[in-house]
Design goal:
Length: about 200
């Protein structure tokens, strides 16, 4: 028995690229967290926005819990997951719109959108936003794939989803991603840019 799935189904090729971007960006996230450069609520709003576009139920559950612990209320979380922007602070609105565009474009946002992000928040903060997007996309890809495999085991296979992707994406995330993190950590010692969308010479 097959069922339709009205949200995103990630391919193995897409996930490999997503892992690479997330591994490059993870040092930016660590640096931002260590130096308290980013508001926790702002971060969770960005993650929830990507979760809403891609439709990951597991991510929605996890990030709802994290968002609640950051101080967001249930109504605000519900509105973001429903695609509403009514309660988003004005200062964060462009970042949330960019996050939705980033997910909707399959991680290939328009150059003009990237330029607007940098103009609004500055290069350093824009890089943190892109790092957050890279990481939430990684976990979303893994979460959706795990959910699709679970559906398959229940004889509710989703049309368009391939078994090889459902198994390989979580497996690669566990085994290959840590290796990529170490690799890009070493490369970062030589001043290599940590953000594909916003290189150092932007």
């Amino acid at each position: 028995m097959t069922q339709l799935f009205n949200k995103r189904i990630f391919t193995l090729k897409e996930h490999i690229n997503i892992m690479s971007r997330a591994a490059k960006s993870i040092n930016v996230l660590f640096y931002a967290k260590r130096n308290k450069l980013f508001n926790k609520k702002f971060k969770e709003r960005i993650m929830l926005a990507v979760t809403e576009v891609n439709g990951c139920q597991l991510c929605s559950y996890v990030h709802t819990k994290v968002a609640l612990s950051s101080g967001m209320n249930k109504e605000e979380i519900k509105q973001i997951l429903n695609g509403s922007k009514d309660d988003i602070p004005e200062s964060e609105l462009l970042a949330i719109l960019f996050a939705q565009h980033y997910a909707d474009s399959h991680e290939s946002p328009d150059k003009s959108a990237v330029s607007s992000l940098v103009a609004e928040y500055g290069k350093d903060k824009a890089k943190i936003i892109c790092a957050i997007l890279s990481f939430i996309t990684l976990t979303t890809s893994m979460g959706i794939s795990m959910g699709l495999f679970k559906d398959r085991l229940k004889f509710k296979r989703v049309k368009g989803s391939k078994l090889i992707n459902e198994i390989s994406i979580p497996l690669l995330s566990i085994t290959v991603f840590p290796v990529l993190v170490v690799y890009y950590k070493i490369k970062s010692l030589f001043k290599v840019s940590q953000c594909d969308l916003i290189p150092s010479n932007t």
